[in-house]
Amino acid sequence: MIQSRAVVGTAHASRYLQQLAKHWSHRFETEFDTEKARIALPLGEARLAASPEALTIDLSVADPASLPDFHAVIVRHLERFAFRETLQIDWA
């Protein structure tokens, strides 16, 4: 498994985590509460963790070639929910 992580500074981490999880729960296997989430998407698995200062996003994929697409999907959805603020999302 190939893994990637982004730590996104925001005071709204729990809200964004829940919005992302609820959004995908209608189509994909999802487990979440106010502080953590696991979402099984076709591209791989996303695990999110919310703290008062940041949203940590951990992605796991089987195919390394799919990682850029997975990044793009997560960023696109997160930016849609966080339209009131500009987020800095750097993957490592």
The tally of structural domains comes to: 1
Task: Please count the beta strands (DSSP E, at least 2 residues each).
Answer: 5
What is the third-level CATH name, the topology? TATA-Binding Protein
N-to-C order of helices and strands = EHEEEEH
Cα end-to-end separation: 15 Å
Averaged pLDDT:
95
Which structural class best describes the helix and strand composition?
alpha+beta
pLDDT < 50 stretches? none
Helical content (DSSP H or I, runs of 4+)? 25-40%
Coarse morphology: globular
Number of helices: 2
β-sheet strand percentage: 35-45%
Gyration radius (Cα, Å) is: 12 Å
Name given to the CATH architecture: 2-Layer Sandwich
Q: Summarize the main sheet.
A: 5 strands, antiparallel
**Order of neighbouring strands in the sheet with most strands:** 1-5-4-3-2
CATH superfamily: Alpha-D-phosphohexomutase, C-terminal domain
What is the CATH class designation?
Alpha Beta
Describe this structure in a few short sentences.
This is DUF2218 domain-containing protein. With 92 residues, the protein is α+β, with helices and mostly antiparallel strands.
Indicate the topology:
Layout: E1 2-9, H1 13-25, E2 29-32, E3 36-41, E4 44-50, E5 54-61, H2 67-81
Antiparallel strand pairs: 1-5, 2-3, 3-4, 4-5
Protein name: DUF2218 domain-containing protein
InterPro entries: UCP028291
